[in-house]
Request: fold
Amino acid sequence: MRSLLITGIGELTTHAGEGVLRDAALVVTDRVEWAGPASAAPAADSAWDAEGSAVIPGFVDSHAHLVFAGDRAAEFAARMAGQPYTGGGIRTTMAATRAASDGVLRANLARLVGEMRRQGTTTVEVKSGYGLNVDDEARSLRLACEVTSETTFLGAHVVPPDASRESYVELVAGAMLSECAPYAKWIDVFCERGAFDVDESRTILKAGAAAGLLPRIHANQLTRGGGVQLAVEIGAASADHCTHLADSDVDTLASSSTVATLLPGAEFSTRSPYPDARRLLDAGATVALATDCNPGSSYTSSMAFCIALGVREMKMTPAEALLAATVGGARALRRDDVGHLGTGAAADLIVLDAPSSLHLAYRPGVPLVKKVLHKGVWV
Ligand code: NIG
Ligand code: FE
Reply:
């Protein structure tokens, strides 16, 4: 692949949290070939001048539900008028998703992934979970495979209205898993009151692991259940949400390799208290930020918005929030080739319409992503 020299970088973040280079340059192919001071830059096949912009790694959005049809704007409006969020709306999206053609689902998925890319997300995880029968879960994952290698089987999102609890757990851990496993890297369960309890979640995740899938869990979103403890017990890559944590949950996460993935778009859109990022960081846990993009609890595709919420509402420093949205997401996906711009990493980067990455939180809601490079190609 031809090499590209990016010159005139006002502030280069190769690895969030590790300091920045001023007046820097980068040479990339589909990988990062070289990063350093502009004065020492080697020659390349072509060059592009960033004219003083800040450059940061592409965002890694490690938690998104993008295969669905319909929207639930009315449910959002009802919440803003005082209704609580229960997760019951998942069944509304299930009905719309089952009724949609492949073409409709594919177009909605492409629209959302495009929206994400233009906002700087270069790696995205995509879950199933709105099919909730064998054919529609497998279909959701086949479509997800068309846009990302980070696909997650979430047959255990809720028990669908047309199944009994016991038979559904058996189906998810049996025939549905067999049908879906070829299209999934990960397996996830919504471990929550009203969804799946700890024992059901363990059964499903262990069956997934036996089929070669790696576990991750929706844990402690609405209540302080046993999801976080289960995540660490089974070595899940990530426990997602972590909104309701006891001290013992924080300690357990901090002494494990399970990433605490925080999804502040969900608390924003359900008007709920934010997770305590400060407590997790101070205890030494690895924290990721992700969008949770879905039509119910968090219909945002913007990692910059999540960074701004992390800083303003969750007491993260701007550097911690950027780290969580890049390296943190990569850790949650057990990847070391994305989320940073060290030599050899994927050439996934964002050119900001700003002199520094601080502007992501300092200028909330402003479209600061000027250009995005994905695997060495301008988006
Ligand atoms: O992560 N909590 C479970 N699943 C999604 C919400 C899904 C929905 O409401 O459609 C979440 O918040
Ligand atoms: Fe989610």
User: Anything to note?
Assistant: The two ends are 17 Å apart (CA to CA). The chain has two domains: 4-57+340-378, 59-332.
